[in-house]
Amino acid sequence: MARFNGLIEMLTPYKTRILQFGYKNLFGVNCEIGIVYGGSTALAARHGLPRKWPKLAMPIPYGTYRYEIWRAGALAAVEEAVVALGQLRGERRSSTGANLHAVEATLAADGAIMRIGLRYQRGMFKRDAVYEAVDDTLRGSVSAMAGRNEVIVKLGRFRELDADLVVCRALIIARTRARGQRRFTGRVTVIDPNTLVAASYKQTYSQIDDVGMRWRREARMGESETIELDADGRIVRIRDEWGSEARLAEFAPAKPK
Length: 257
Hints:
The protein has a 15-stranded mixed beta sheet with strand order 10-9-8-7-6-5-4-3-17-16-15-14-13-12-11, covered by helices on one side. Strands 1-2 form a two-stranded antiparallel sheet. A hairpin with a 5-residue loop joins strand 14 and strand 15. Helix content is 13%, strand content 51%. The longest helix is centred in the last third of the chain and has 13 residues. The chain is mainly β. The protein has two domains: 45 residues, no CATH class; 191 residues, no CATH class. The two termini are 18 Å apart.
């Protein structure tokens, strides 16, 4: 946080706030981002900061999410995720305990994923990946027993990224709603939970009710799922056309500090 301390002290008399997140000493990642809003535009311009600042906030509630994944009437996996200021951590473990998909990401103020690390494990086999959003591309590498492969993928217009966790889809919907859209069609960067390789696909998210609590996600040709939200923007259920479901089993809100 030392990088921004002088700027905060300098701008405070002008009643300007800086939203900070993703610092190395807090989350263990090398990512520093500040968004300024309010106060003097002249002072902001002097420090190379934007003159107009929409007020941004984390689009889904902070806390711990626990989802149960059901297929053919049987519990197939349990997915747990923690969403906090500038951070997302999650993992999905199969009911047998044999498969693990783990994710740790740094988030921008509006919920966009800036940097992400992933881990896949099946028995003794392990695979790791790290990606970072740089300009209009997602750059990273996938490491496994056979070696290390570099991956570069062009991001979509809104830089949406789905790491195959339920909360990732909640973030995409929340960001779509924040833009005032009832429908979003565009490139979404998807990370395969088994290979950990990122690829860009055209997807559609569309609101299918009048209050914005039911959405449809169309991934690839012939693939769709219905997503149900609660009033706070948490996904409570996802059901695909084959009958598989992800259900919100528990949510524990983050304790105020």
